[in-house]
Design brief:
It contains 17 helices and three strands. By secondary structure, it is mainly alpha-helical. α1 packs across α17. The chain has a three-stranded antiparallel β-sheet. Keywords: Cell membrane, Membrane, Transmembrane, Transmembrane helix, Transport. This is Phosphate transport system permease protein PstA. It is a multi-pass membrane protein. Belongs to the binding-protein-dependent transport system permease family. CysTW subfamily.
């Protein structure tokens, strides 16, 4: 360092030091900015990879191999009497007995023969090997024909154009999700069935159609191609309704009391600390709590949406309370003071002035909490909602499953080639619901937001 004759540091030396310091600071800022951009880019890349992976596998699963063919309801095969009509002198019980007998008679009809006849009409060579031919159509479609005939008995003796789902293995084969060069002993379908599937596809009898059954059917293990999300969707819907009905009023009321009315003492601090701790508790712990309290003590049914809803309510409550308190704290004290100054009581100041201004934040927190609960799987597994349920629940006390649990079950299915895509499709449905809820939260916040 340069010093003049009086021992003071020279101007040039100070300038050099300052310039070097500025260069070093700029380098640090550029390095920090580059690291930030790299972190954001890495995060976006991972999200993009996730979405591309799910979309590329899931979107094709919304389309499924489907037969479109003419089915003749041969009277020699469908040997059932006319649909019962209630007579004036008949009691409801007597009519129901006759209807049950007719439905039972309908259930004994060999609908597989109708399918074989329709296949033989489209491709005559299938008539020689009926067992291999039946493997083209998923087994549950014979019940679809039964239901069709039950709705319209006049079809007997007539021909109707119907759409029947192809077997899951045929769908996999036609989509190319299995290696066609594998030897016969490693293929799921016999060689003749594979050959017929290709021919029928070329003839236009089998088409790749949008699968509405994915949304209207329940899960199935005997007819894999017919498996759908209807039961899981209804179970999740019931649970979310229970969460909204319980978590929102209880959580908001608790937050208002703690923030606006509760005295500041040791007990209040203890409650606040415990609420914050509950928000960080792993969700599986709430599942254990729900199993012990609601199923063992209160004897509520296993695998029921009511139990799932109560467990998710416990899990969502801390989020709603914390977010609501933060929103209330953000309201300027001058609004409360102004209301009190013009003669309003404290309750009136809160309900008429503070709460309307806090409403956007409360709604946002609630919807995000519900969206988070919608995607939870661990607590639902512990209360038995991983059980196979092949029906749509009609009440919250019926056995059911939920969307994330259904995804978990499908992911573990042994027919990986078929259910890998279907699992991704179910994830897309779940993500769509969650993104819809988040979009609704953003819209509500912007719609009711007040700036001061």
């Amino acid at each position: 360092m340069d010093y003049d004759d009086n021992g003071k540091r020279g101007y040039a030396a100070v300038e050099t030091q300052v310039v070097a310091s500025l260069k070093r600071r700029r380098r640090e800022e550029l390095r920090f900015r580059a690291l930030g951009i790299a972190a954001v880019a890495a995060s976006l890349s991972l999200v993009a990879i996730l979405f591309v992976s799910i979309m590329s596998k899931g979107i094709p699963a919304f389309w499924q191999a489907t037969f479109e063919m003419e089915v003749y309801f041969d009277p020699e095969v469908v040997q059932v009497g006319p649909r019962p009509v209630r007579e004036p002198s008949e009691t409801p019980a007597q009519f129901q007995d006759r209807m049950t007998a007719w439905q039972t008679e309908l259930g004994f009809v060999d609908f597989n023969q109708l399918i074989l006849d329709a296949l033989a009409k489209a491709l005559p060579e299938t008539a020689d090997r009926p067992r291999d031919a039946l493997r083209l159509v998923t087994s549950g479609e014979r019940f679809a024909l039964r239901d069709l005939l039950a709705d319209d008995p006049s079809l007997v003796g007539r021909t109707a154009r119907v759409k029947l789902l192809a077997d899951a293995n045929v769908d996999v084969w036609l989509k190319g999700n299995i290696d066609r060069s594998l030897p016969d002993d490693r293929q799921q379908l016999p060689a003749k069935t594979r050959e017929w599937a290709d021919k029928l596809h070329e003839m236009g009898v089998i088409k790749n159609r949008f699968s509405t059954s994915l949304f209207t059917n329940t899960d199935s293990r005997s007819s894999l191609a017919s498996a759908g999300l209807a039961g899981a969707f209804m179970g999740s819907l019931m649970m979310m309704i229970i969460v909204i009905l319980l978590a929102v009023p209880i959580g908001v009321a608790s937050a208002i009391y703690l923030e606006e009315f509760a005295p500041q003492n040791r007990w209040t601090d203890l409650i606040e600390v415990n609420i914050n701790n509950l928000a960080a508790v792993p969700s599986i712990v709430f599942g254990l709590l729900g199993a012990a309290v609601f199923i063992i003590w209160f004897k509520l049914p296993l695998s029921a949406p009511i139990v799932g809803g109560l467990v998710l309510t416990l899990m969502t409550l801390p989020t709603v309370i914390i977010a609501t308190r933060a929103t209330l704290k953000a309201i300027p004290p001058s609004i409360r003071e102004a209301a009190l100054g013009v003669g309003a009581s404290k309750v009136q100041a809160i309900t008429d002035h503070v709460l309307p201004l806090a409403l956007p934040g409360i709604l946002t927190a609630t919807i995000i909490g519900v969206a988070q609960a919608l995607g939870e799987t661990a607590p639902l597994l512990l209360i038995g909602m991983s059980a196979f349920v092949a029906s749509v629940p009609s009440t919250p006390f019926d056995q059911s499953t939920a969307l994330p649990v259904q995804i978990y079950l499908w992911q573990a299915n042994e027919l990986r080639n078929f259910f890998e895509g279907r699992t991704s499709a179910a994830i897309i449905v779940l993500l769509a619901l969650m993104l819809t809820l988040n979009a609704l939260a953003i819209w509500l916040r912007k719609r009711f937001e007040t700036r001061w």
